[in-house]
Amino acid sequence: MQYTATGYSKPLRRIFSFLYQPARRVEVEDDGLEVLRTAKRFESKVHPFFEETFYKPLSRLILSVSQKVKAIQTGHIQLYLSYIFVTLVLLLIFLRISR
Asked: Are strands 23-29 and 39-45 parallel, antiparallel or unpaired?
């Protein structure tokens, strides 16, 4: 026998069970004789709370924004320099108005 990561994380899973919503299933096959078990299956699942709540929506947002920003990336250096020039002009106007 050896310890697995599941054994070390069990106390945390029990404390935060309201978030992780663990589910366990044990199946025992004994072919009619309880003493001679032929198979035993154990399955444990944890609901991916943080993944479903935070990471997936965040990744969808980042992917949608990157698809929209992709339109301004053409590969032409002159266009990139004009982006920089327009940004500098807008910043100077903004600074002038804010004073």
From this structure: antiparallel
Domain locations in the chain as residue ranges = 5-45, 49-98
Q: Report, in angstroms and rounded to the nearest whole number, the Rg of the chain calculated over CA atoms.
A: 29
Weakest-pLDDT range from 32-41, 66-75, 89-98: 32-41
Q: Residue 34: is its pLDDT beyond 70?
A: no
What average pLDDT does the segment 5-24 reach?
80
What is the Cα–Cα distance from 17 to 10, expressed in whole angstroms? 10
Q: How many helices (H) and strands (E) does the chain have?
A: 5, 2
Neighbour count for residue 13 (Cβ, 10 Å): 14
Instruction: State phi, psi for 58 to the nearest 5 degrees.
Output: -65, -45
Amino acid at 24: R
